[in-house]
Amino acid sequence: MANLKISALHKSFGPVKVLEGVDLDIASGEFLVLLGPSGCGKSTLLRIIAGLEDESAGDILLDGVSIANLPPAKRGIAMVFQTYALYPHLTVRGNMALVLKQAGYSKAEIAKRVAESARALELEDLLHRKPSELSGGQRQRVAIGRAIVRDPKVFLFDEPLSNLDAALRGQVRLEIARLHLRLTATMVYVTHDQVEAMTLADRIVVLNGGEIQQIGTPRQLYEKPQNQFVAGFIGSPAMNFLPLENIEGKTGVWPGGARQKLPESAPETHGPTILGVRPGGCDLRPANAGKLEKTALAGEVMLEEYLGDASFVHVRLDEGANVIVRQQTSNRQVPGTKVHVVLDPAALHLFDATSGQRLGA
Amino acid sequence: MAVSRARRNRVAELGAHVILLTFTVIALFPVILIVINSFKSKRAIFRDPVALPNAETFDLVGYTTVFTQGNFPLYFWNSLSVTVASLFFVLLFGAMAAFALSEYKFPFNRLTGLYLALGIMIPIRLGTIGILKLMVATGLVNTPWALILVYTAQGLPLSIFILSEFMAVVSKDLKAAGRIDGLSEYAIFFQLVLPLVRPALATVGVFTMIPIWNDLWFPLILAPSEATKTLTLGAQVFVGQFTNNWNAILAAMTLAIIPVIFLYVLFSRQLIRGLTAGAVK
């Protein structure tokens, strides 16, 4: 168990800046997820923590001691890779024992530790097999076993579930969550999958373009995204974004002049604003309910996606924007129907149209 | 429908086999001619070169000449030791250079790779005079090292070129895992990377071995002494200015094929995987 502190970390490959001043404080025993689209620098950050890449500037402190100049093996970290990266010429036992052998443990200690880890991950029956004789899920369990056998201060996971099929992914995800509960170790986990991030993380770091967009618990990120990028990235289907002309007296003004009631936290007045609302925060009304005309957004149903417990209705507004609305499945929508979209004021998020930053609390 | 398609496939298959067999016959014909004639008397060789040896024409005179005249077991050993040693150094240094080029970032990395690959296009024989001067100056003339060093230099460009391509596709994560587990760069190279590029090593091995085994030029210039003669050079004693001892030449050539076949079989399983790697994943 250890706390990890990253300060003012910069990384560039030639002229390309990958990380621009990343500061992170990871508490002891915390499960931190680095989340972002591909190319956002999250894997590079992890590889720098592991010592596989050199940082261009900045420092990494483990329990207050800089590890930035140590080779990977001396940093007290273990890493699990997307491609498992098992040693193909060694058995499962050999894979798990190698790091201990390198570190100079006695034979008895190695045997004991390998047996313990194997028991914890139910790998005992596979110890004599080669990686080529294992399924994908088993391979990733061995990779995790290889990481825990050394009892590291920090675990690093680099998209460990991305090569597994959907059913196994859920299973191994659960395994990692249980592992974290049992070991109470500090874990840093890179993924582009928000479901993994939301379910596993104590805190999530959303990265984009080499910069931290927001750090917070999954709940904070979902309920109070700090900017338009985070709002659009977290949640599936993505949040709908609609432009407002401005805000006057805590009320939004649509480009056509119609008014929109805003949440209590909205600013008194503001210039051009982006209004964000999740599919669950909108509802549909029949087009002929005349008095809605002023506040609602008129449009036409494009298609309905039936998911069993709910359905997502894609509506093309008359102004041209698309909105996705979550509906009860009993409320069937036929494509081509004229409808009105009404927005729940409490579910609205407001962002400045130019900076993308959140407005109000 | 299904039947006719099956039949069409069979016809196509037959056609492919006919073409392949024709090619095999053309390719093997001179080799077979050498082998069968090495077992015949001189008169029979000229009377009917394509006939198989029979009771009347069967004659081992070629082989007895080869083994009694000159020092053929020694020549044989010279060829073998020079080839195997050169092969070892080409593969070792080629793989190491390829690893460095594909794994480490340093200035002029690509340029260095291109420079090393340039040797594929420039025949080493153009530098013969320089090489000879160098060998004389270092006192290596008439030692096996003269040949081993030259053949290593000759084989490296292709070896580096092919191996660096293969090394580049070895999983980055695997090497990273090795580093995190505390393996040295040498351990990563020998234990993780080399076994994974074994098919490529076999391919390079075969392509490197054959020209070395067959070479006449450098043994003639750099190591013509009796003690260092190679098989190809040794067989030249049977080539006279006016008459050739065909029995002995053919017998020597037949014997020279054996080690190549042996090494090829050793490599072949890997080689076929190497040639088809990438084509079928």
- Number of structural units classed as domains of chain A: 2
Helical content of chain B (DSSP H or I, runs of 4+): over 70%
What is the overall pLDDT average of chain B?
A: 86
Arithmetic mean of pLDDT of chain A: 90
Structure write-up:
The complex is a heterodimer of chains A (about 350) and B (about 280). Chain A has about 350 residues and is of the alpha+beta class. Chain A folds into 2 domains: about 5-225, Rossmann fold, CATH 3.40.50; about 235-350, OB fold (Dihydrolipoamide Acetyltransferase, E2P). Chain A is built from 8 helices and 22 strands. Chain A has helices spanning about 40-50, 90-105, 105-120, 135-150, 165-185, 195-200, 220-225, 230-235, and strands spanning about 5-15, 15-25, 30-35, 55-60, 65, 75-80, 155-160, 185-190, 205-210, 210-215, 240-245, 245-250, 250-255, 260, 270, 275, 280-285, 295-305, 310-315, 320-325, 340-345, 350. In chain A, strands 6-7-8-3-9-10 form a 6-stranded mixed beta sheet, with helices on both faces. Chain A has a 5-stranded antiparallel beta sheet with strand order 17-21-18-19-20, with no helix packed on it. In chain A, strands 2-1-4-5 form a 4-stranded antiparallel beta sheet, with helices on one face. In chain A, a hairpin with a 5-residue loop joins β13 and β14. The longest helix of chain A has 18 residues, at about 165-185. In chain A, about 40% of the residues are buried. Chain B is mainly α and about 280 residues long. Chain B is flat. Chain B has a single domain (about 60-275), classed as MetI-like fold (Orthogonal Bundle). Chain B has helices at about 1-35, 40-45, 60-70, 70-105, 110-115, 130-140, 145-170, 170-180, 185-195, 200-215, 215-220, 230-235, 245-275. The longest helix of chain B has about 35 residues, at about 1-35. Classes of the chains: A alpha+beta (about 350), B mainly alpha (about 280). At the A-B interface, β6 and α2 of A face α8 and α9 of B.
